[in-house]
């Protein structure tokens, strides 16, 4: 029964018909109403199942939105089968087998409805119905928020699904709605989903977030088009396409996704235009299966939060990136499997922690007019059948520009590799490749480094300012399976660093010299006129004595126990040398060390000094420090980790290999993690080259204890563990005093006391940086001092040099 009355304003003009009437129930009012009549419902709760079959207006009282509740015990509370206007009603559905609002026919307008239900769906549109739904909200934690099916359509404007037990908006069986400026959130399933051939939706200016499934899901030959939409904070993938789905995204933003930002497979097709993808936990674009294709134009993919490639193309899929930017990611583009292909045009790949472009397992990549910057490896063609083309590309500031291994055969044409820190081009293990009109400049290693006798073709290539030499060709020795060597034609080099450049560019010919590896010694290269290119080596500065280096160690603030440990180790080595000279047996000293402690306690500095001490004692040839972490040792595929670890060991030959956060090689939830491969390779190399390299592993104390306990093979290789304690307030003050003295500042009256109090109160959590914190504090004081002194018109020397307590930064 109704708790109010319904006033019907009749539009008819017949004399015998009243212009207005009062009815005790909605059903009676609807029975009496004709097309065009207005039904104004008084506030109250109406336990009726309404069926609107005429083009009437049904509304609550003005200014009292939500005061009219349609709440039957079961069934469909509101069914609309005509072009009616339904406005400002509160609809409650309790039947899990029926929708709360069902629109079956006509072009009705639903405005300002509040649907709170535990129904199969909050609002359901079927058949020939084409409603316009404005400013409605749906709260249905038991089922679908909005369902459009069986050929239904309509427009939803500024609507909101605030909760759904399944999908927020579900389109199936030929439904075709349009969503404008709608919000869908807190759904237990996907935010927007379309399934089945003929099903489609268009969304403009919409937002999907806080859903437990995918933000957008299109499957089974359905199509969708999103413009200016946001998809973020999902539990599953941001966008999922499967089984011949077609989706277009224009000017959209996909971000804060813990899984794949976009995942498509099974012949699905995705078009992205001016869309940004950021803060994703797995792949930004994940593309699988033959016939699956993504076309991205003017898009940006960046700021990955996981350890996966930004763009992943595999199992015969295709990806096209045109005028795109991919940056701040672990890896930029991985193309795997025969039939898989990536075409990249006029795009930027930068700030890549590992490999910018990786091509493997028979895949193909074509890059034209692209720029690859600041990556560990610019492009890596990994194995047999893998190839493609780099055409007119620039690779700048990468550790290695191009790597070709294991039978891969790409074509690199008119490309420039600038300022690589290791090598411009590195070819090994049966890699091939053709390099045409390419240039390598400013390499800290070789320009072109071809080992194992690989059959690489170099034509009209040029190297400039390469520290170790422009070209290094080395065979793999008597056991090498690759003995044909590179083909070199019309290649030139200036040989500027450590080399005397010829008066005019002259062809380089293949040398028979051998090299021990990627960073081996410079070979005895000759020009065609046999003029020696190697200039006399500059005299080296004499190495410091062990006592001089120990003096620098003693000058470090704090670290008393560390200094004692290093001195004891140094004394053992020195006495062992003297006993050998006297014809006595020397005690065996394991030189590998474990450093434990918090960040900023001087572990790297002590490791550098330790290497220099060992060099001064003649234990190591060079004593230099090579610092690496997990990202430098662990590859993406079986076998690549061993290569990376061997290369790191080779760089440290004659010195110290310092592995920071070594426990990351053996995570607690390792599974199929390749860190174990790095550990196994490391253990073998430490045994095989125990006289050539000293290894120091470092990290937090508790984590390193776990690391050594689960890897007894590693633990047995180390002689001792040295613990670096946190600095106290007084030691941190001394570091600031040293920094001030070095930069010609002084601590004014009261500043030492203020600093001591500051360091005593500063939080000592995991982010505390010890000595780094002290240095950052000094830098902050200098900045605040500058802001203060800049206001003085004629500062004195004291003004310019004295730091006062007021210059201290706020406590974090």
From TrEMBL:
One Pfam family named in its UniProt record: Beta_helix
- Entry annotated with the keyword ATP-binding: yes
Alphabetized Gene3D superfamilies for the sequence:
1.10.8.60, P-loop containing nucleotide triphosphate hydrolases, Single-stranded right-handed beta-helix, Pectin lyase-like
Outline the extent of the AAA+ ATPase domain.
589-728
Into which family does the record put it?
A: Belongs to the CbxX/CfxQ family.
For this protein, the record's InterPro entries field holds: AAA+_ATPase, AAA_lid_6, ATPase_AAA_core, Beta_helix, Carb-bd_sugar_hydrolysis-dom, CbxX/CfxQ, CbxX/CfxQ_RuBisCO_ESX, P-loop_NTPase
Name of the protein in question: Right-handed parallel beta-helix repeat-containing protein
User: Per UniProt, which keywords does this protein have?
Assistant: ATP-binding, Nucleotide-binding, Repeat
Its domain of life reads Bacteria
